Amino acid sequence: MTEHKLSPAEAQALAEATADAMYSRDRAAQALGIKIVRVQPGASLLTMSVRGDMVNGHHICHGGMIFSLADTAFAYACNAYNKTTVASACHIDFLAPAKEGELLEAEAVEQSASGRTGVYDITVRTSGGKTVALFRGKSYRISGEVIAGLQQADQA
């Protein structure tokens, strides 16, 4: 059986539907106030405002919060094809502090996708354009779909 090739409009609609389905169940992203600005096949842009409960003892954004934002952007980019995908490895470099009240943007871009694996680069910036962190994630596709049954219905 050959897989149905999606048009660009169908691929975009699938990415958006997948993101909506994921976000409806993503209690961690919701709790952190992460918002989806855009998602497309293999890419995403998410934002998060640095709240008072996100700063550490140096009164800057806790690295784990920045990591969570980047990891979430990674997840939405690599799951945009509606094929359940998880992280197999990731690395983050913190380049500058983020402060309470700043809006952070995490932009994820697919660098490679082949077979079950992918590589994604995520840049975390302040809304003013200052780069806060660089994150690289490696993905692994497992069985299943974000929206169960959708792919089979499209191929029928």
From TrEMBL:
What Pfam families does this protein's entry cite? 4HBT (PF03061)
Please give one Gene Ontology molecular function term for this protein.
acyl-CoA hydrolase activity
**Domain Thioesterase: from-to ranges:** 59-132
Q: Which family is it part of?
A: Belongs to the thioesterase PaaI family.
Query: Carries keyword Hydrolase?
Result: yes
Matching entries from InterPro entries are given as: Acyl-CoA_thioesterase_PaaI (IPR052723), HotDog_dom_sf (IPR029069), PaaD (IPR011973), PAAI_dom (IPR003736), Thioestr_dom (IPR006683)
Q: Does the keyword Hydrolase apply?
A: yes
The name on file for this protein is: Phenylacetic acid degradation-related protein:Phenylacetic acid degradation protein PaaD
Q: Which UniProt keywords apply?
A: Hydrolase
